[in-house]
């Protein structure tokens, strides 16, 4: 039997400015992403699609999900393989192409983790472990576009 996990979220539109969606410009794209026991996440559409740049958009959240999943699996693999990570930052980048009808899709995401390890003897294994993550990351395995990674590893200064 296969184990399953369920994830329940609520997306609540907060952008009715009075006339609802009577015209394309009559409403805000603002919304909240809600999950039990967690603070609301302020969402909107990308500013290119009349969204609020101060709020998270779905495209950013997708790229963030891929970066988070990679990081969490990488840290797990490091912990179980004797690589001590002392710092990790990923400046991930996603690209999306639009078609003539206004739809679009992601064409790729590049993860760029900058990892600090405790000792120089851990660098080689630390690099190799990044290559194992794509087979494990739930999010990367679920998308239909390439997710690549370009890690940089450093040794912690004494």
UniProtKB/TrEMBL annotation:
- Check the record and name the Pfam families matching this protein: OsmC (PF02566)
Taxonomic superkingdom: Bacteria
| Organism for this UniProt entry | Streptomyces physcomitrii
Name of the protein described by the UniProt record? OsmC family peroxiredoxin
Q: What does the organism's lineage look like at the top?
A: Bacteria, Bacillati, Actinomycetota, Actinomycetes, Kitasatosporales
